[in-house]
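Sharing a chain and its predicted structure for anyone who wants a worked example. Both blocks are below, sequence first, tokens second.
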Amino acid sequence: MSETISYQRVQAASQRVRDYLLSARNAAGHWEGELSTSALSTATAIMALEMIRRQRPADDDSLNVYIEQGIRWLSRHQNPDGGWGDTVKSFSNISTTMLCHAVFHATKNTEHYVSHVVNARQYIDRVGGVKAVVERYGKDKTFSVPILTHCALAGLVKWKTIPALPFELSCLPHRFYKTVKLPVVSYALPALIAIGQVRHHFCKPRNPILRLIRKLSVKRSLKKLIEIQPENGGFLEAAPLTSFVTMSLAGMGLVDHPVVQKGLAFLLDSVRPDGSWPIDTNLATWTTTLSVNALEGTLSEFEKAPIRDWLIQQQYTELHPYTAAEPGGWAWTDLPGGVPDADDTPGAILALLNLQTEESDEVSPELQTSLRNGVNWLLDLQNSNGGWPTFCRGWGTLPFDQSAADISAHVLRALEAWLKTDATAEESTLRTRATQAIERGYKYLAAQQRPDGSWLPLWFGNQHVDDDENPVYGTARVLAAYADEERRTTPQAEQAIQFMQSVQNPDGGWGGAEGAPSSVEETALAVDALLSVGLSLENPCLQQGLGWLLDRVEAGTYTETTPIGFYFAKLWYFEQLYPVIFSVSALQRAETVFKKCPDEKFRLSLDAADSPIMSVKEK
């Protein structure tokens, strides 16, 4: 039996996934995607609603249906080991299990769901309980303290065992935040304020001076919370963060506070028909830029125009009230709770360059301004070590505020692409800065490369790999920056290529690392990256990877998702469009490579007893 990896086969698969991706656009012409439902989000949302319900009259049952449906959803999605994972495809973890277990107690559902509660309690005891939560996050209190606060509101954890958060520091001018070294990451300011206050409410410090300082800081920090809350009520568009803030204030009795009321409205607006909540509302800007860049300018002008206009509108033109980010960046969503960051901004720049008008190579004045502002924003964000952080330059030492290899590589690709556009007179200084930043950026990447040739990403992981790492994703993303003719022969690129080949699975696909089950997302990323740096189609590794991906497309299983995404505080998620987008990019690149060698025909011999072997035959 034999299968042919011919141009026709690749073209057919490429067209199939491309058609699927195009069909996933919304009525406005761009992509919104769909994030996975989350047990963690559902549990925290239920707790927030319960804290509000307790403060309402006994005959007010308006929240009952949401709480009951949420509890039922959790009961149906408990894992066999008694725990819960962040998504329906995730392994159980102590954090999500403690949150889910607590809401059965808080809502007085322990008797109705006896087996669920007992099994959850046994899992928690087996894994290590409170101590395990604290150890999981280490010095970073961004998530350990909210989890314990959630459990304290349910009466399962004593307030005095929860570390106090210095919410009084939020009263300082924003420019001092990185100086005082907050115990939470930059995006967690709302949690610092609300959770710090509820802990202070139930367990005040013994030190009389500190007690006085915090008492005097309550009103002022609450005012700060009002100022940074998005108009739709959703902090970062995230149900967990919004829920933690809402439950904390409601737990103090501030159920009529405007932050609680807006938080409640956001939660009720974002609940899904089955009673669950997603980890975030959507990644519309991110999925749109990923899709556009995967399609690489193959859209018609009719299709490009509305996406281009929409994307330019998503660029921030004012100082962001949350992180005090300067104008010029893009967030992951088009909704009010987004925050500009260094992964979505280069994605938007690359997408806008791919969305240029076909009739002219010149960039329109509006597009020039947008690109220039985006580039300037990225240059201002670069850290002293040459890399780029996600949100804020030089904020702190916690992981999600440090420079990241995958994000830095994305920025470098955007800067290099922008430098290839025609220069204007006012861009001379900016282009010099960009050139210098690029050299510093590649020095950072070289320093971050691990001995085995890989790089680790910040916002993506693999639950089958030690420490939840995903070197395949990280290395694939960084390799894309080395696709330039001058850089693909560097030692860094060569080592990375060797690493990617060394961790390929026997079935031809890739997981997050050696031995991790193959996934569409990671295999497509690996194939795409290896093709981008010029690996020959005659290479057995690439042949087998491409064959694995083609098999999935032809079987119709290429849309199967894997929880590889990390949200804030390493919360797992999967996105319905990721496997499709990554497959489009890989297969379209493969199609392009085939076009460049029309006189060759590639045949893949598939033998049940042997590994796939590729032979090259003259046409």
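Comments welcome. DSSP finds 23 helices and seven strands in the chain.
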